[in-house]
Amino acid sequence: MDESRFWQIIDATLPAAADRSGQEELLWRQLIALPPGEVAEFAWWFDRQVGRADCDNVLAAWALIDGVGSDDGYNDFRFWLVSRGRAAFEAALRDPDSLSEVVTPGEDTHFQDFGYVALGVYERLTGQECPADPEPDSLGEPEEGWDTRDLAEARRRMPRLRRLFLGEDA
To answer: What span, in angstroms and rounded, lies between the C-alpha atoms of 50 and 77?
Structure first.
């Protein structure tokens, strides 16, 4: 499995994205049809994408969308971001303000269960835990943006999210 195939599988779940359990079930059905080795590779690609999203830009956008929260909440937010598909994910890494086109106020952006579907499928197929990624840093270091503690800078850089979630005009 390569990165392109990983994103094809994620993007194929998007028609069910309005219903979380439906999106999880669709992902499950796709993965259960694969050999265990490919399911493990999918899980590794998932973790790699979540790692890519661990950057200042995404962290600052999460702070505007959800407020400051726990590390687990931030992780669940990045699972949600992956679940939105490749186009939304890549756009958010380039320009976190683009999330204003993906998320709505009041939407639950914590999608913990989606991040564990592949692990559950692997365990169902093999009776064992999914092995660790042999190349966990294969995508390099995440890009840094700015000091995310500087909320004034985050507000300046993300006017659409600021307007949508904080009700503040430019």
So the answer is: 9
